[in-house]
C-alpha cells in the first residue's frame, strides 16, 4: 500500500514533470480551487524556477494568456489518456503552438535525445513544452499522465499502476469521495438492494 504522501507526490518522470507542474498550476473549483500564474510576474518566476526562461527575460499579459491556452489544451489532451478521445479543438491549439516552435534534435552523452527550441523568451518556453510533449508521446510516458476523473478536480497525476487503471489524483481524496457518492446514488436508486 502506498501512503498518502507517496500517492500525492507521484510526479511524471524526467522533463514531463514540468508539463504536469504546468497543468497543476490550476485545478479544483470553488473555494478550494488552486490557482497560480495569475500575473506576468508570477508566470515569470514560475518559468525561471522550472528552467524554461532565463532570469530577467520579460513576460507580458499576452504571454500569460498564451500559457493558459496551451495549458488548458494540454489538460484536454491528457483527459484522452482516460476514457475520452482527443478533442479536435485541443489538437488544433497544440498544433498552432507547434507551428511556432522551431525545434532541433540534441544528443546528450547520457540520457535520450531531446528537442530544443531555437528561441529565447516565453516563445522558447512554449516551444520547449511542445518538444517535451512530443518526446513523451513517443517514449510512452505521456499515456500515463492523466487528469483526475473528478470533474471538479482535474489535477494531473502520473499513473504508476501496473495495468494503467488509475483514475483519480488521489485514492484517499477524490477516489474515496467519488466512490462514496456513487454508492449513495445506487442506494438512493435501489433502496431495497
Ligand atoms: Zn482529484
TrEMBL record:
InterPro entries found in the cross-reference section: ABATE (IPR010852), ABATE_dom_sf (IPR023286), Znf_CGNR (IPR021005)
Gene3D superfamilies linked: Jann2411-like domain (1.10.3300.10)
Domain Zinc finger CGNR: 144-187
One Pfam family named in its UniProt record: ABATE
Protein name in the entry: Zinc finger CGNR domain-containing protein
